[in-house]
Specification:
Blueprint (H helix, E strand, L loop, with lengths): L2 E5 L1 E2 L5 H9 L2 E7 L5 E6 L4 H4 L6 E6 L2 E12 L6 E8 L6 E10 L3 H4 L3 E4 L3 E6 L8 E4 L8 E3 L9 E2 L6 E6 L2 H15 L9
Parallel strand pairs: 1-5, 3-7, 8-11
Antiparallel strand pairs: 2-4, 3-4, 5-6, 6-7, 8-10, 9-14, 10-13, 12-14
Length: 203
Amino acid sequence: MKSITIKGSERESVGKVATKAVRNAGAVPCVLYGGGQPVHFSAEEKEFKSLVYTPNAHTVVIDLGGKKFDAVLQDIQLHPVSDKILHIDFFQLKDDKEIIMEVPVKVTGTSPGVLLGGVLRLNTRRLKVKALPKDLPDFVEADITPLEMGNKLYVTKLASDKYKLMHPDNTVVAQVRISRAAMKAAQEAAKAAKAPAKGGKKK
């Protein structure tokens, strides 16, 4: 998985007044968990743009001057109106410990059902995976090549030896639904097949 670096500085004062001062200075208060004692730090808001405002998934290198930590974003608080970042929690990565995180779904292939007029619906755009840090994927590939009209692609078809998908087996990732146009065409074809041929003799 791709990684981005966030440069910040450790915080000594972590009370409400200090936290407010950090935000007023245009920075984001953060906490890093998972390494024993929590590490409180702050970084400029612009440092998080490529991490937060993107559909992609990334691991993070937190650079606090002389200290560097490998981590993943665990939780984020946004302002309900402005979407301004208020606080971020990170979790430290360990090479020998599995981690759970969400990654995007990438659709590949061509569905015969779509070619016949069906509509592809992506039911799940992100999936939770559990893996060692070195095995975390940038995305989970969903091949829709086998999907005929009305078929569904279940999460069990996306299994990998490198990571585990943390979803029930009946989770639908994508499906090809019959479009209104295709349904109308089928109904008209059925009516035409039942109608008597023109010029036929009545008995």
